[in-house]
Amino acid sequence: MASAPIAVRLPENLISAVWDYQEREKLERHAALVHLIRIGLQRTGTLIPEETTQDRQSGAEARDWALKTGPKIAASLKATKVSNKGSEYRDADGKLFSIRCARRRNNLVGLYNTMRDRIDYVVGAFEAGEGIFDVYKVDIETWAKHARPGSSGTANKDKLTLLSRSRLVELGKSLGNVRL
Question: Which residues pair with residue 63 across a beta bridge?
Fold first, then answer.
């Protein structure tokens, strides 16, 4: 996604709110501005064609968001984190699973093959509204059978598989809504 520098005069109260958001979300200032603009454009229904694909920066932003969101979803499921990195958890029955999070306009969740090979199931958490997630569970055998490979031309094409929200709804089990 191409970018260009712009200069805009903003009222002090907006600048203060942006910097507060930037600190709270632990983002760089430019990333906070871009994120807030994207949220505003999404809420107005404005389409941004570049948003249909993920580049290195938007992928990193999505990963960071998911790594912050996943533990909150896990807490609501009363799961315990297995390692300090990634999104691997253990449920009350001792089964291993991974939480895969997607923002409101994203209908796909991905899973690296290395994680797929060591967990029992996947939890897909799809943002339905501000702080509200629709959560689904699918066993790993079903994931492996129905997930598709990553998009061609991407660095991780052969390292991960993707499953859509509609397939998770169809093939998995709803765990209800989670409010964060």
Answer: none
Tell whether the model's pLDDT for residue 51 goes beyond 60: no
**In the chain, domain spans:** 10-52, 54-179
Radius of gyration of the chain (CA): 17
Nearest to 179 by CA among 48, 98, 69, 65: 69
- CATH dotted code for 54-179: 3.40.210.10
Q: Are the CB atoms for 147 and 161 separated by under 8 Å? A: yes
Q: 82, 88 in Cβ contact below 8 A?
A: yes
pLDDT above 50 (res 40):
yes
Q: Which residue reads 């796909």 in tokens?
A: 108
Q: Strand order in 160-164's β-sheet?
A: 108-112, 160-164, 148-149
Sheet bearing 96-102, strands edge to edge: 80-81, 88-90, 96-102, 121-129, 132-139, 173-179
- Please state the pTM of the whole predicted model: 0.68
Q: Which tens digits make up the pLDDT trace of 116-137?
A: 999 999 999 999 888 899 999 9
3-state secondary structure of 35: helix
